[in-house]
Every structure is written in C-alpha cells, then in structure tokens.
Amino acid sequence: MEYDDGRFVTGTEVLIVDDHYEIAALLAEALTDEGYRVRVAHDGVAALAAIRKRRPNLLLLDVAMPLMSGDQLLLHLKREQLTDFPVILMTADQAPERFRALGAAQVLDKPFDLWHLLQIVGYYTKHAYLRPW
After folding, report:
1. Can you give the residue ranges of every domain in the chain?
2. What are the CA-CA distances from residue 41 to residues 8, 26, 30, 44, 126 (Å)?
C-alpha cells in the first residue's frame, strides 16, 4: 500500500511496518502530511519482500508482529546486507540496547508522542548517513 495524495512530496520514502492497522494508518497519514512517500507492511515477511523490491530511505519498525518480528527482520536485513537506510524501532520492550546492537538507529518507546516521532524521522531522513549498521 502506498500513500501519496497529490500534496508536495519530498521524494523521501518511509516504510512503516506495524501489525496494528490503526497505528500504521495514523503514521502513514501523518508522514504523508509532512510530504513523505509512504509504504506500509503489516508483518516482517511482507516488509522484507517490500525492502528487497525497493529500499526505503527510512524504516519505521514495530517489534512484536506475527510471522516475523521486528528484531528477526533486522537480523535478515543484516544477513542480506540490506542495511543502507536507518531503522527507527518502536517497542514497549524496555531493552533498547539490544535493538541498537541489531542495527536500529533509534528506539522509541510505545506509546510514543507523534510529534516526537516526526522530529526523529525528519532528523534521520536528513542525516541518513547516521546508521549504526
């Protein structure tokens, strides 16, 4: 699923991966309003296929998902050397160091403040070279 409703688009593409459809839709709408092109996947398997097809400029990734979790997806990305974009991980887990070790540039606690998330996305899309991979 891709979002682009005709408003000014930055050309920067964000792939949102979250199994909660409402959260994914909210993030997609907010990012589209900010001018980003957005794709959405609802599990790690679909996300991996989407990334193999076309790499995003930034990956916004939930951890707890069916079929393949966010941390499992990070391992696949690293194994396949699909690491040329920053990953912002969203989780209720209280072990951010573990996710940074897997390659996440930033770990956001759920629930998160939408304005804070938008600021972080903006930072990493402007400074895409700041990847821990």
Report:
1. 9-126
2. 23, 14, 16, 8, 23
Helix and strand counts by DSSP (H, E) for the chain = 5, 6
Q: What is the pLDDT of residues 9-36, one digit of tens each?
A: 457 999 999 999 999 999 999 999 999 9
Nearest CA among 7, 55, 8, 46 for reference residue 24: 46
Q: What's the CATH number for 9-126? A: 3.40.50.2300
Rounded Cα distance between 112 and 91, Å, is: 9
In this structure, what token pair is assigned to residue 124?
A: 């990493």
Distance CA 86, CA 93 (A): 20
Alpha helices in the chain (DSSP H): 21-33, 44-53, 70-79, 96-101, 114-126
